[in-house]
Amino acid sequence: MATEVKVPTLGESITEATLGQWLKQPGDAVAQDEPIASLETDKVAVEVPSPVAGRMGEQRVKVGDTVAVGAVIATIEGGAAGAEAPAAPAPAAAELPDSTPVNPKGPGENMEPKGEAEEKGAEDEGSHLTLSPAVRRVVLEHHLDPSKIKGTGKDGRLTKDDVLAAAEEGEKAAPAPPEAPASAPAPAASAPAPAKAGGRREERVRMTRLRQTVARRLKEAQNTAAMLTTFNDVDMSAVIEARSRYKDLFEKKHGIRLGFMAFFVKAAALAAHDVPAVNASLDGDEIVYHDYLDVSVAVSAPQGLVVPVLRDAQAMGFAEIEKTIADFGKRAREGTLKLEEMQGGTFTISNGGVFGSLLSTPIINPPQSAVLGMHRIEERPVVKDGQIVARPMMYLALSYDHRLIDGREAVTFLVRVKEAIEDPTRLLIDL
Question: Is the pLDDT assigned to residue 98 strictly greater than 50?
Fold first, then answer.
């Protein structure tokens, strides 16, 4: 008896997704609630669990197909008859959704094409490993065999950090290639000729659903909002001094390092209290003001930029902010963020400084009306008390929707942030 596997509810306003990867192949043993497929939505990758235990049956859609919520994508054969958990899979290279084989020879080795019979035989020799989209990407980039890497995730699954550690270890341990003996025979005439140095190559890769959504929403923001950006710079001396003085005590007490982001989140909350329009949004002909600050924090993930939300940031302490952001970053790299964690948000903070950006004009994340851009810290000459001195300076950028926020309000908001960062005591006494 076959049980149908349907696309689960994906979240508010999300009605369809793209099949990113089959985690199980026809005939594979499947436990109840074990993921059998990965779907790419507008925001994150979502795993589809098996409703029953049994064996993987028919796959009714292909990788890259668009599927609607409630659509049948596969069947599970056996139902309750196969209720026992499947045996642990034997080591084998994971099958990837774009049918790109993992190189078993390791980095630097050319991969020669296999015949159909050889490929089928390799598939029959073992079962398939379950890899998240983020892990799969790193495996491909470093040409690793995932079956030879020890996983530290839940149920022994591989994480991105496991793969990166294995890649680094492999580079250190890789021996220098031996010199060919003088009497070595010439290579066979049938061997493929190496590509010419400096040859021109092209590669076409289909945009992921997330990238398509990002492109569409950002272009809509440009077409709809009257965007303008105002700039300022901030002396980071006081924050750096406070962080240096208390970082050890902070980490000992809270188990997390004290970073710069918590200072900026608190400064933004303080400034938004004085300039509420920056934390508002437009809904038709109405302005919606929020008495809370839900900060969307831009985080880099393998599949693109994602913006999980710090709820009620105005009421959070430094430790809670740092812990939540660290957790967001870790799960973004692993591809395990939840849809509801990225929905909503009334204001965005984007830190391009971690990538070395000196200055930028960030784009608003609709329906929000403003985004604060942080940048790298570098020593620059400034005038203090009539003297030219070197100070660790950072450029700040505030992009805003001029339909809702006047220039005076935008500049005032950015000045309030600057004042709070240059004198962190203001964060404690609400000035």
Answer: no
Nearest alpha-carbon partner for 149 in 134, 176, 168, 174: 168
Q: How many CB atoms lie within 10 A of CB 261?
A: 20
**Is the pLDDT confidence value at 181 over 60?**
no
**Can you tell me the distance from the alpha carbon of 303 to that of 242, in angstroms, rounded to the nearest whole number?**
35
Residues belonging to the chain: 431
Three-state SS for 431? coil
**pTM of the predicted model over 0.85:** no
Q: Residue 394 pairs with which residues in a beta bridge?
A: 234, 377
Residues with Cβ within 8 Å of residue 142, at least 6 apart in sequence: 107, 163, 164, 166, 167, 170
What superfamily would CATH give domain 226-429?
Chloramphenicol acetyltransferase-like domain (3.30.559.10)
**CATH of the structural domain 2-129, one choice from 2.40.50.100, 2.60.40.1910, 3.40.50.720, 3.30.70.980:** 2.40.50.100
Tell me the per-residue pLDDT of 246-257, one tens digit each, with 9 for 90 and over.
989 999 999 999
**Largest Cα span, the chain:** 85
DSSP 393-409: EEEEEEEEETTTS-HHH
Yes or no: say if 292 and 361 are a contact pair by the CB < 8 Å rule: no
For residue 2, the SS3 value is: strand
Number of Cβ atoms within 10 Å of the Cβ of 412: 16
Residue 259 DSSP SS3: coil
Q: Which tokens belong to 298? A: 């831009």
Give the residue numbers marked as catalytic: 402, 406
- pLDDT exceeds cutoff 70 at 277: yes
Residue 382's DSSP bridge partners are 389
Distance of CA 49 to the CA centre of its chain: 22
**Quick one: which of 289, 339, 349 has its CA closest to 313?**
349
Domain ranges of the chain: 2-129, 226-429
